[in-house]
Amino acid sequence: MHLYTYDGSFEGLLTVVFEAYERKAWPTAIEQEHLAQPSMFGETVAVPADEEKAQRVWQGLQKRLSVGALKELYHTYLWEQPGFEQLIFDYIRLAFGTKENIEGNYAAPCVLQVQQAAKQVHREKHRMEAFVRFQKTADDLFYATVSPDFNVLPLIVRHFEKRYADQRWAIYDTRRRYGAYYDLHNTAMVNLELAPQQRQATLPHAALDAEEDKYRQLWQVYFDHVNIPERKNPKLHLRHVPKRYWKYLSEKQPRNLR
Question: Which pTM value belongs to this model?
């Protein structure tokens, strides 16, 4: 039995693939080092991330897989569900182990599972792009929090860079405790350990711009006017806008009756 541990990065996971082939010892489990429990009956191999080794694995995959399949593999990494590392390894091993194109080989469980995982991540990406709502802070920063089911923040950054290119903004993932900050020129990924009260979807009133409350009320009034009661279909609405996303939406927040 071989347990491989890595730092949690995609480059680190690809380095695990390189080391497994180098050792000719296939992993029975792959875990992030801060979560791994040492095995009593096998070998634990701690693998530090190595950009050169990771790049060699990626270049090898580029010769065997389409751009779409490579994207699906990365999306499976962002999927983060239990066992995703082993799933990625099995897919890569299958790709390296045959001269045939494996992308349509649904007889191999890992191929179908990677495609299904990638679809879930892709769906979550589009929902985050649609449902994120920024609040303007007193220092002219547009700030939003998200807590997606999957780690889609790296995938939605480009959308907001294009849409809000003329303003500073930050999106903070409360579940994974890191965020993206755009300074009008570049976007940087930043790790932040915010206090629990700062991880809420709505910022404290004192931190908001003086006009922010008016903008939210205007959005709520607009939503009321475009919402036609006779055409109200709660089941269809929930299908398109599941309840777990309501915390992001201005039109779903409690009304200010002042």
Answer: 0.80
